[in-house]
Design goal:
mainly alpha, single chain, elongated, 103 residues
Length: 103
């Protein structure tokens, strides 16, 4: 019992080949911002930003950016930029356990 070491959760996305939740959320917000600016059918088309009453309230319109490229490319670009920091945290060992080279 206890032979396997659990993988820390912050390493699972990188090892599984999935973009981090923060990146997926940012791209989704940017898609909505782009729709809000360009799509006349969007419910917030040409909507003006009103003043915020509470400091804790943050409107996604203010934090999101308009996408000028396909969402998949934007997600991949942000993921590659974030991967540089995460790769330093993960060091995989490619060694056989002892006894692997028995005669």
């Amino acid at each position: 019992m206890g032979c396997h070491r659990p993988t820390p959760t912050y390493k699972l996305h990188l090892l599984g080949g999935v973009a981090l939740p923060e990146i997926r959320r940012q791209v989704t917000n940017d898609i909505e911002k782009t729709k809000q600016i360009n799509d006349e059918r969007h419910s917030m088309f040409k909507n003006k930003i009103t003043s915020i009453r509470l400091k804790s309230q943050k409107c996604f319109i203010q934090t999101a950016k308009e996408l000028h490229e396909p969402p998949q490319k934007a997600k991949l670009q942000r993921w590659q930029n974030g991967m540089l920091q995460l790769e330093e945290l993960i060091q995989t060992s490619q060694q056989l356990p002892l006894g692997g080279y028995l005669p």
